[in-house]
Structure formats: structure tokens, C-alpha cells
Amino acid sequence: MIKAEYKYSELTSKVIGCAFEVHKILGSGFQEVIYQRALAIELEECSIGFAREYDMPIFFKGRHIGSRRVDFLIENVVSVELKAITTLNDDHLAQAINYLEAYNLEVGMLINFGCSSLQFKRLLNKKFRP
């Protein structure tokens, strides 16, 4: 069985490349929605399948208890959460991991456009159930 970080590395690398292109052109200082719109254009130009602001159901003990919109769902397998803040902290990381667990997705990403250098984290769901 292929480890998740290798299975999705090509796809996540492409997404990171798109994010770098957006950050190179726009820099930092815009609201998150501006980066979200620009990243959608870049993903499209790179032929990467995605859904933007995808409504993901949240379940608790098999019961639907609500939903949360993920900024991007890439090719139906990788969630991407965007931020436009000066620096990422543990709360942002925990939030993104919680979403992965709630969505039961194996891999996710947290991307921050808000500082002078693009920040990104690849995330693995250790509780993933195939």
C-alpha cells in the first residue's frame, strides 16, 4: 500500500505551484477571497479539477450534524484551506486537521497568502477510514 504522502505528492505539488504563482503576482495584503478567486483561475489554467467552497457534511456517530464549506476540494480527494494572515499558528493547523477528520479525507493542505513568503502545510489524516 502506498503511503498517502507519496500517493498525493504530485497533486499537492501542483497545487502548491499554483499557489506560488498567485502569491508571486499578487503578493500579500489582500483578503482571503481575492486569493481564492485567483487560485481558482490558476488551478483551471493548470487543468486541475476542483470544487470551490464545497459544502462538506459533518457526521457524528453516523448522524449528519451539519456542514462546513471547504475552500477547495481538489480532484475529490484533497481539501485545501486558505488563509490570508500574517502567520499560521497551531489553531489554524488544528482546524484544518479537524476538517480532514470530519470529512474523512486522507490528505489536506493549509495555504497562507498573508505573509511576505507563501506558507503551506501538507496534512495527513491519521484517523482516515478507507
UniProtKB/TrEMBL annotation:
It comes from the Bacteria. Pfam families: PDDEXK_3. It comes from Spirosoma foliorum. This is GxxExxY protein.
